[in-house]
Design goal:
- There is one protein chain.
- Helices cover 30% and strands 23% of the residues.
- The chain has a 3-stranded antiparallel sheet, with helices on one face.
- It has a single domain (4-67), classed as HD domain like (Alpha-Beta Plaits, 2-Layer Sandwich).
- It has 73 residues and is α+β, with helices and mostly antiparallel strands.
């Protein structure tokens, strides 16, 4: 993903959705990429890695927002 920077990774898809929504509400472009195995895509309890990317020019602002997010999401 040229021009995009990974700013966050999590093993929890619900947390990833929260982070995406948080960044979008601050008008930051965001893409999430799930690395969940296709064989367990219907297992909601399966662990999966989700990486969150933003454009390079918005990375500093996005990181600042994430530093102030609640810890218990």
């Amino acid at each position: 993903m040229e021009g995009w920077v990974k700013i966050y990774s999590t093993g929890n898809e619900i947390e990833a959705d929260f982070i995406v929504g948080l960044l979008q509400s601050s008008e930051i472009e965001v893409q999430s990429i799930s690395k969940k195995d296709s064989w367990n895509k219907f297992d909601v309890f399966a662990n999966s890695q989700v990486d969150i990317y933003v454009p390079k020019e918005q990375a500093d602002e996005a990181k600042l927002i994430l530093e102030t997010k609640p810890e218990d999401i």
